[in-house]
Specification:
This protein is mainly α. The chain is 56% helix and 4% strand. It is elongated and about 100 Å long.
Length: 181
């Protein structure tokens, strides 16, 4: 069993209100352990319908607000990033001034140790060997060796030429040298 949609749940509540007003205009009910008159029951159901309508309206407004924010972010975002880079470049040594812009100075790069440099160099060499990559000059010296190549021309019938085979013999073997479709 699936849960009803928001619209279906609201329609169900509004239907209960309309049916109660039509069929029990002056009724009194005891539901659970609470006594209701038609007016109090309709008022209770109407408060639920109003809350559901308000929630739907708020969700639609929130979706509109999110869409507007995403549009503004796409439009203004690149300028914000460019301005932040400008401020960082202009005040790179003034930490207090950067703090006024809510920016932090970029961290200084820590130099690699000798062991880290050696490991990086060994890894780069191993990767280059595994991929088979070489320098530009080395690539120019590499040439392929091809022997025993026979070029066979492909002759295809032209569109103006009628087919030599009738339509009923389509199951026969294709002619060598003629491409099939």
């Amino acid at each position: 069993m699936s849960s009803p949609t928001k619209a279906a749940a609201l329609a169900r509540v509004l239907g209960l209100i309309a049916g109660t007003q039509k069929h029990f205009p002056n009724g009194s009910f005891t539901l659970g352990s609470t006594a209701f008159t038609t007016a109090s029951l309709v008022q209770l159901l109407q408060s639920l319908a109003d809350a559901m309508t308000a929630a739907n309206s708020a969700q639609a407004s929130a979706k509109d607000a999110l869409a507007a924010e995403e549009g503004a972010q796409a439009k203004v975002g690149p300028f914000v990033q460019a301005y932040e880079r400008f401020v960082l470049a202009a005040f790179s040594n003034a930490n207090q001034t950067l703090a006024d812009f809510s920016l932090t100075p970029p961290k200084a790069r820590t130099p690699l140790t000798i062991e880290q440099k050696a490991a990086a160099k060994a890894k780069a060499a191993a990767t280059r060997a595994a991929r088979g990559t070489t320098s530009k000059k080395k690539k120019l010296t590499v040439q392929g060796n091809v022997t025993g190549v026979t070029v066979t021309p492909i002759t295809a019938p032209t569109a103006a030429q009628p087919s030599a085979q009738p339509a009923s013999s389509a199951s026969s073997a294709p002619t060598p040298g003629v491409p099939t479709k």
